[in-house]
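anyone seen this seq b4? input:
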Amino acid sequence: MKSIFERALGEKEFGKLHPKIRERFGFGCEDGTASIGRGVMEEIRYAKWAALPLAVGASRHIMFPEGGRQVPFTIENYAYRDAVGRETLTINRTFRFDRSLRRFDATMVYSAERGRIVDYLGNKQHLAVDLDVWAAPNGGIQIRSGEQRFYEGPLGFRCPAPLTGFADVCEWYDEDDACYRISVSVRNPLMGQIFAYKGAFQAETIRVGAGGIPLQAAPLRLERRE
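predicted toks r here
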């Protein structure tokens, strides 16, 4: 079975990715593998005016009100089939500050109905975000977020754009330094940048059990609505 990123990009566009990027985004739940990256964030920064909403998000592993330089981190990609049978990729990032440990989790599925990847942010999947993906000129994978929807119990609504943050993400492989690089910027359409980071890491492909994902990496709640 194709990975969710192969389905979203299509064979031709997926083939434009650097082989090292295809390795990290090309496996699915039937492959029995995961990609584990370890490295250092050169810089993490956030907008002071957004500290309160970021603090609320931090409790659900969605960004956080903390910044720094040379911050060790891990990024873990796990593919598995969720409880409703969807091919799923979870990407969990853990940042190790001097006095705290921060998480930023994302669980992604390919939505045939929407014709794109839907990203459930955080560990409780209350926020569903449409993603546009394409191959960057440097062979990296470029991701841009779009419409956002909030789901809680029977409640479900589209989030007004002025109240949200839109993300631009690029992950690529640096041949000169033989490492992966990642850059993320989250902006509000009215207030500007909310959160950003950039860094470098090494990654290895590992074998995983039949479940495809460790219990501590799985979301706490499953949202069926896309």
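The chain has a mean pLDDT of 95. The first strand starts at residue 33 and ends at 46. kinda curious what u guys think
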